[in-house]
Request: fold
Amino acid sequence: MVGVLIAAVSILGAVVVWRASVESSNASDLTQQGTQQLILQQQTRGSIEAGVARDFRLYTQFQEHVLNWRQMLAQADQATDPSLAADLRSQARGELSQARHIRPLMQNFDRPSFGDDRGIVPFDPAQQVQALADANLELTGLHPGVTFAAAADAHDRALHLVGIAVLFAAALLFLTFAQVARKGARGVFAVAGLAVMIAATVLFALVAVAG
Amino acid sequence: MTDESLPPTPDHSLDPASPPAPPMPPHRYVFGEEPDTEAEIAAERADEAVTSRSEALVAILIVFATLAAAVVGFLQIWASGRSDAAAASAQRDAIAATAQQVRSDRWSELQVSTLETSTLDGQQADLRDSQAQVLGQPETPAEQLLGVRLRKLSDRYAALSTTIGNEFTHISIAGRLSPAQDPSFPTRFVNQNDRQPIRLHALQDAANTESSGWSAHAATYTAVLTLFAVALYLLGFSLALPAGLGRWFVRGGVAFLVIGVAWAAIGSTGQPEAPSETAAAAFADGTVDLQNATDAYDSSGYRDAVAHLNRAIEERPDFARAYLNRGQATYFASSPTQGLGTVTSPEALRSAIADLKHAVDLGLDNAEALGDIGAMSYQQALVDNRPDLLNQALDFTKRVIAIDPQRPLWLYNLGVTELALGRRDQAMATFRSADTAAKKDLSTAAFWVTGAMSALDVLAEHRPSAADDVLAAKQFVVGDLFGTATGAPAPPSDLRLQLVVTPSLVQFAIPKADAASIDPTRDVVVAQWYYDDPDDHGFAVLPEVSGRVALNTAADGGWFNVLQYLPTPAPPRCLPTGTYRVEVYVNGHLAGTASTPENFGSLRTVIDEGLNAGFCIPTGWIQNPVSKAGVTQAWHTPDASEGIAVIRATVPGDQTSVNVPKILDIGVRKFAAAFLPPLRGPSAPQHFLFMGLTHQLEQSYRYQGGVIQAGAGYDPGEGAVIVAIAFGHTDRVNVIEQAFQSLSSLQQVPQD
Reply:
């Protein structure tokens, strides 16, 4: 009978150790994967923000020329001095020309409008960053937080399985002693081994079901 | 151990009354023993009766040891897992901190540059208004329209800067962070942007500490497991041994088991702390305060830093970097100097050293901590008259040199410590090494020397018997670093120096009687200016005005050297009340020294980069709302009975000459007409170095009960006229004069 129990415990223990090894390996892989995802996510976000920041610098120049263009035209319309009005219109054309030159250089920013009648060109860099991030398929597939959570779960399961494996090892030891000890000690070992084995088996089942 | 082929042996321990078992056949034996005699067999039976009880006990011990090993094995794996998790968390914090730093740098730079553009556009518009007012030239319609456009652009850029602040940095450039209140703008804003990365680095540091703690626990459990393995081996093997020897094995096993259980119990106590968000946040606040404090005009920033770092340490007592920062903040909170600290209060010194040593004890053995302990131990040795601390200073300074061997600061510190220990030859050799290291970067060499001179002065002050050695060392360092004139006669040693120190400048003069002993075209003249605060903490060199100097011819035929102090430090600042001393070295020999006590009262430094002007006013004066950065600065007492106004106006591009005296007179009269009685004057114009401008002049006016000191000059580089007017009651003329004379250009642009 003890021999049968020893065989059962050995097999169960081996299975538990194998599962623990698999879970531990999973946890390690997931941690690595999460770290790489986090790095890639930060790199991609950084790249997107760098592009928007570059566009923002161009945008400020564009905005200045557009605002000057609109303002000069408005001032020319109101000027009573024909010479001053002509001069303002001439300068306004120059401003518009420069704005047109800058506009195509903005690569991430959807081609900006030429502003309202006050020359205000709307630009929301945060919204631009968000739009580019949403459109980036690689970025949308990166969820380092979820991966790290999965890694933590896998690690916990591995830890539980290792604990159960230790219990099986203890049971195996007790049963081995029960097999070889003299009669007096045999009963103690057998009972202890059986109790530990049952407890470990129940725990293994619980972990397996929960996993 | 038993042989299953043997007949069962009755358990006498359980049933002492049962009859003895039949004798074992004489040819049967156990484990290769020789056949026994009857007597031996009887003895063995008696022994087995005892052994059976022992086996049961051993079995129980084995069960216990195995269970203990199982528990500790689990704990070992659990601790390893926690260690790995904490290490992974540290890694994530490091990645996040790096990304956050890049993001902060990028957007804060854009936020600042956009705001700067807004400010410049606004100032350009204001300057055009000022031009009309100061120069009396009305703006043309085109200029008026340009002003309108500039203001709209200014508003648009300001809105964009605000947008970036709201969306990315989440920090508004206002209040203490604004250009109006931050004398080193955008330093405070940039420092504030660093807060988040600093916080994340603090969390990373805490996670690493936690990981190390769990690793140590895991290592303890591993060692305990080894003990249990040995215990199990001894207990198990005891069953196979004769009773006598077996008992010893059992005792050994029990000993290992008890030690293992006790060790595991002790090792299980005191779990590593999880990273504290509160400590990280307090550390970030304290560190930002510490960074900002170096640019402040008072020590309140250091005190704020100490308060935050106290909180960080309270939350996380093993936070080494918090101790390092608190040590530095504590030191400078009581130090009248900036930069290379050589003087502070004895209490601050002791507290700072304790903090720094604590940081090192916690594992932070970087150059900053080691070097500072060395330097501060040297100071404490002299201040508290504890020569034993000089060996501590020597030890820590040598440790920092071992990891940072070429930094002149550490080498000079080593030299002064050796000198304090009486090792003069060794010290001179070290000073030579320090000079050699300093000369590798001539742009900073003079700065490092000022640190050595200050430290040497501490030695001379607290140990007068070492005065000769100190003088020799100072002369050696100055001569070696700045050089000496070849073929020059013996330099003078008793020059009578006359000093002038104002809040904005320092000047020494050598009277004509002594002038012949120096040839400025040949000799190397070096001035070291020292300052001692009113609390008499001790003299420390002012690096901004110390170094090799040029001598100019004075009106009496002697020599003089004048150096503007106010625009030189970063940020620009006024000299405070205290005692000033100068040491003038000629060809590496101390040619003369003099000191002067100065009481400037409590001063505020006003700087305006756009106006390109800085000046010193009493702290009770307030800013008039008409002030516009880059165009006008007006400050006065609350009742407006005294004050100062500085106005800048650009000259139209088609105008190539400026009548500065006329502009000054118009400006003063317009200014006074608004709120002062009728003016008398002006006095005859005087042509000093008004703000280093061209076409400059100064003149005074009088009104009933008061006086006006006015000056103007032309900045041809930017085509701008600067007019300054200081006014007040006649009995306050010294205050008015002090404010007026402190006016300095922040940047002098060389003119072709």
